[in-house]
Amino acid sequence: MSSSLEKSRARSPSASSTRLSDEKARIVRTENVDEDVEKRLTHEVYNAHVDVSGVDERKLLRKLDLALVPWLSFLYLLSFLDRTSIGNAKLYGLEQDLHISDTQYNIALTIFFFSYSVFEVPSNVFLKRLRPSVWLSLLMFLWGIMMTVQGLVHNYGGLLGMRWMLGLFEAGLFPGVNYYLSCWYKRSEFGIRAAVFFSAATVSGAFGGLLAAAISNMDGIGGKPAWAWIFILEGLLTVIAGAMSFWIIQDFPDTAKFLTEAERTVVIRRLQEDDQFSAAGEKLKWKYIWQSLLDWKTWLGMLLYMGSDGPLYAFSLFLPSIINELGYTATPANLLTVPVYVVACGMTCLVGWYADKKGQRGYLNMFNCCVGAAGYIILIASRNAGLSYFGVYLAACGIYPNIPNTIAWVSNNVEGSYKRSVTLAMVISFGNINGAVSSNVYRARDKPWYTLGHGIVLMYIGIGFICSVLFMVLLKRENAKRDRGERDEIIEGVNDNNTDLAKNGTFASVVDAKREKGDAWSGYRYTI
């Protein structure tokens, strides 16, 4: 079977809908197609018996958006608020009350990322095997309890234990929701939804500063200091949200109860037309896990995401302290973080929207890296509070948009339900483990300008830039090989005489080739 099915999907996102006729035309040319050959080339239509003529696709998309994105974004807001609120709590006497040093505080930040990273891959597999409404709700409920108890600790050991458990239960949300959303939307639609979902992190940054400033007024109530009340109240909010999520979070498209059968059918057919062949369901097989582990995109994607996630945690955990060292006290420092996060939120959504409309995620990644690098160069060189505060804005506008853009870029180039689940979890897990590094780079002895910390974050951004270039070059090279027919498979009864293609596999039909090979299928085109 010829693999020159279409031009790169990055240049022609709608081309998948005409792929079937292109396949037939190229293979048969002017010859007549017998019935057996046509069956081998025909794509299986999901729920062929269902009449979908009455479904308005635009209305259906809005229905999905309203049912999925707002609540999931709110959950991530709580997640990011819970993990980073320790930065706000530090300004209200956490270290003094628990009698811990700056090094011990950094260790408390670090230990969170170890449990968080280790549990992400198995959590995504559990999510696929179980119902999202059950798994995600359970995780939220449990981490809310851990967050609440964190406000009741009286010593360093208690703080470490709660940070470890918090990371364990929070681990499944971010990779799980990104994978979950990729099971609902086409590749050209996923980016803006991932950006809106992730922008909750920027909102949580703004909201966290305001909330911490407000809660600090409870200092001394019930014998608890202000930092303890920050943990307790935010934790209780998460417990309530986790309990509610069981009835609010929807499951996967093929079983979604808020859709009619015709709407479920349209959702899955749209995904299949977009080269998501596993959208109708896929049984867990170890070979799908191995496909992810042996794919170069998984490993390069891990380094690519590391270049974004390392700076993210350094920025979010230490922004209040950085502003504090510019000459502002605790509450003003928290309040001055708010406009930074608001601007970053707007930039994140703008990049997500533009990437879905125009593609070119690789170029956007490189542009964002340059903006972030400019911000940190200013922070390293500047000795002026106002100029440094401007550098903080540039850093935020470079770091935050790259997180969802990178995830969408990797996700859009991996096909196979379980393979994508494992790949996303590995990519995000490796990025998050670098939070253990970046949470230790801002040392008390480097006050007030934190030159070493800013330099290490700048190094991370450089790694992200280099990996973006490499990822894009390798994807283009692979697409070119498929355009030349070097990846074509043998389809029985169609091109059996092309024995030189046997190394690429022999399949009974195109459908079998798609199902078995996923994004390695010769007709699949990577997005740049």
Instruction: Give helix and strand order, one letter per element, not per position.
Output: HHHHHHHHHHHHHHHHHHHHEEH
Number of strands: 2
The largest pleated sheet is described as: 2 strands, parallel
Strand adjacency order, main sheet: 1-2
Spans where pLDDT lies below 50 across 5 or more residues: 1-33
Organism: Somion occarium
Keywords: Membrane, Transmembrane, Transmembrane helix, Transport
InterPro entries: MFS (IPR011701), MFS_dom (IPR020846), MFS_trans_sf (IPR036259)
Subcellular location: Membrane
Topology:
Blueprint: H1 19-28, H2 35-41, H3 57-90, H4 94-98, H5 102-118, H6 120-129, H7 132-150, H8 156-170, H9 173-182, H10 187-215, H11 226-248, H12 261-273, H13 286-293, H14 296-325, H15 330-358, H16 361-381, H17 385-411, H18 417-433, H19 435-438, H20 451-483, E1 490-491, E2 506-507, H21 510-517
Parallel strand pairs: 1-2
Helix pairs in contact: 3-9, 3-10, 3-11, 3-14, 5-8, 5-18, 6-18, 7-8, 7-11, 9-18, 10-15, 10-17, 13-18, 14-15, 14-17, 14-18, 14-20, 15-17, 16-17, 16-20
